[in-house]
Every structure is written in C-alpha cells, then in structure tokens.
Amino acid sequence: MRSPINVDEFRTLARRRLPRRIFDYVDGGAEDERGLRRNRAAFERVAFLPQRLVDVSKRDMSTHLLGQTIAAPLLIAPTGMNSLVWPNGDIALARAARRAGIPFVMSTAANISLERLAGEAGGELWYQLYVLHRDLADSLVDRAARAGYRTLVATVDVTLNGKRERDLRNGFGLPLRFTPDACLDALAHPRWTYALLRNGGVPTLANIESSSSASIEARAALLRRQMDASFAWDDLIRLRDRWPHRLLVKGILRADDALRCLELGADGVIVSNHGARQLDDAAATLDVLPAVKAACAAGGALLLDSGIRRGSDVVKAIALGADAVLLGRATLYGLAVAGEAGASRVIEIVKDEIDRTLALLGCASLANVDARHLYPIEPIPLRGSGQRASNAAAPSA
Ligand SMILES: Cc1cc2nc3c(=O)[nH]c(=O)nc-3n(C[C@H](O)[C@H](O)[C@H](O)COP(=O)(O)O)c2cc1C
After folding, report:
1. Mean of the per-residue pLDDT values for the chain?
2. Active-site residue, selected from the candidate residues 133, 189, 274, 373
3. Contact 304/291 with Cβ under 8 angstroms?
4. Strands, DSSP E only, in the chain?
5. What is the rounded distance in angstroms from the CA atom of residue 276 to the CA atom of residue 289?
6. Is 373 tagged catalytic?
7. Distance from C-alpha of 11 to C-alpha of 4, rounded to nearest angstrom
8. Ligand 1 pocket: which of 26, 152, 164, 274 to mutate (most atoms <8 Å of CB)?
9. Every domain of the chain and the residues it spans
10. Which tens digit of pLDDT belongs to each residue from 84-109?
11. I need a surface site. Which of 42, 174, 198, 277 has the fewest CB within 10 A?
C-alpha cells in the first residue's frame, strides 16, 4: 500500500502489522460495539454550512487551553500498554506530540516510568490517573507532581473494565499469556514479535508495579488490576486538595456532573465515553457536548474525545463548544505502522484536514467557528420498514 492518506488507511495498515489480539485490544469496543458506530454516526450526522466571500488566505488553528497556547486543538489521549503497539510506545507518542506542539497525556497503565518519560520526551506532559487503590493513587499523584507534570487527568468512567468481547475471545489480558494460538499469531507477525523481544519482551505496568506503596491491600488491588469502584465525589475533593496544579476530570457525559466537577475546583472536564470501550450504549460525546457546554458556561476547560478520525470532526466539536479534542486510536494506528513517525504523520494529516475545513468553511481562525457553521442532518427514515426515526419530519396523523 502507498503511504496512508487518512486515519482509516493507517488503521488498515495497523491491522496488518499487529497480531490480531493486539489490534483488537486497540481497535475494539465494549459488547456489541454499537458505541463505536454511535460515536462515528454522531459526527456523520452533522453537516457544515459554509460562509462565502470571507478572506481565508491566512488561517490559524492555534488554541488557548488552560492558560497556554498549543499549536492545534489536539492532544494525544492517555492509552495503556502502548509498548505492545510499538517499542517504547509512550516515548514515541510523547515525542510526536512534542514535535506537533500539542500535549501528551501519559496513562496510569503506561509501560515506562513517569519520571523516565519526563526526562526523555520533554514537551507538554500531562498525567492520567486511575484509582486502583487510594494509597497507590496518592503515591502516583505525588510522583507526577515531583516529576514536573502540571496537569492531572482523573479518569472516572472505569468503575470496572468494560466487557470487551474481542479481548475475551482472543484471551487478551494482563499478564499477557502466550497460548498456542497467541504464539501462532506472533509467528505470523515476525516484525512485531522481533521488535517486542528485542525491547525486553512483554511490557509491564511500569509505574504501578514499581510503586513504593507497599500496603497489602494496594498489592492485592494491583494483582486484581481492578479499579476502586468506591471512588466518589468526596474522593475527588481529596484529590483536588492533594494535587496542587491543574486538574481535569475525564469520562464526563452529563451536564450536572460537569458542573459539579467545576464547582469542586476542577479546571475542566473531558467529555468522553472512553472510545466506546466501557458502557456500550453510553451516549455519543458530540451529542451531549452542547448540554455540557451550557453547564460549563461560567468557565473551565472543555475537552472531548471518542470517535475523532478526521480534521472535520475536530472542527465540529469546536463549533459545538469544545476547546480541544483528544486523539486515542487515531495516533495508535499511526504508532503501530511507523512508531513516532507514524503518529506524527497522523497528527499532520488531522491538522491538514482541520486547516482545509477552515478554509472551505469560510473561517480564518478556529476561534471564529461556532454552531452557526453547522447544519444538523435529520436521522434518515428506516428503509422499507414504514417507520421513521422519531424526530424526522413526519406528517401528523
Ligand atoms: C488501547 C486503548 C487504551 C486506553 N487506555 C486508557 C487509559 O489507560 N486511560 C484512560 O483514561 N483512557 C484510556 N483509553 C481511552 C482514551 O483515552 C480515549 O478516551 C479514547 O481512546 C478516545 O476514543 P477514540 O479512540 O475513538 O479516539 C484507552 C483507549 C484505547 C483505544
């Protein structure tokens, strides 16, 4: 295949390069994967209403976010086990982000230590927190602050892991087990297997396994690899008190939750359904964005992810009130194909599509894009069933 020209073509190549169970871990969603389709459908339902005769000869997509200017309204989302996709995947992604002038969010389930990433990658680094156990979480938060991270992202949509049926079918889990099928799969992907073996074998959860938190319960939580499902508002307040820098809450879909996060002192929220990997029928993020935006009118950063594959998706999210978006699988497909260079290429492609969309929309700057540039398409009547979707124009009886 020639070099990929869009995210979907990177996905096709990633599917070829990765063993099936690794590709499925990256690509898959929960249960019937309706959420994956719903995330995309939400973007597809919205069309543009371009403005004409506007001077768009100079265009600007730089973005103000939490007191800083970033080159584009993009971040690389936190994703765990990136070294299964490419050797030292966390460093490769962080470097691609730095090159593009955008933040990289390091996952709690990263494969290198957060101190090493800060030392080797540079750039604007954020740290994402999963609370497996309170002591463990406290020690990670303190380490992140000491290592120079200045934005913490608390992920709150994983009270337990979603039912990802591709992973169940493939026997994918941690620790990675090499069943006969998995060995055959690895042999069929020699480049990936060679790279894994050359770089220390199966990656570990470097931060939590090396954590100094020695309590018996913390070790037990780690072994179970399950979240602390009792984490609630009081704990968020505690976290706010402990972390002295910027705090965002990721996994918010409701306006009331968003408002409460801000009232408790969070600096912003990330509207996310975890890329449809948790609750299959959770609402699509673009659909709930206007309500969350209205709740956050008084302030606070508003970010969005789940389903972004095109620059035009980014512009639609900005038009509906997001300050910036996170790329999850898009940059992982790039990483799978060519490491840092592949992730960089994906970001360039998305940036180029944002720029093109702005020009064709008649907007010189992203700051000028708003809902007046959108034209919502009504749901299409179900063919042959004689039924119409409820809000399609139907003659009254
Ligand atoms: C392979 C993979 C691993 C992920 N790991 C994490 C994680 O460790 N922490 C987290 O907050 N979100 C995690 N996510 C969710 C992403 O941060 C993000 O919300 C999601 O990928 C966005 O959807 P998209 O992939 O459609 O862009 C993961 C997503 C994927 C695909």
Report:
1. 92
2. 274
3. no
4. 46-48, 63-65, 68-70, 74-76, 104-106, 125-129, 151-155, 246-252, 268-271, 301-304, 324-327, 374-376
5. 16
6. no
7. 9
8. 274
9. 7-376
10. 999 999 999 999 999 999 999 999 99
11. 198
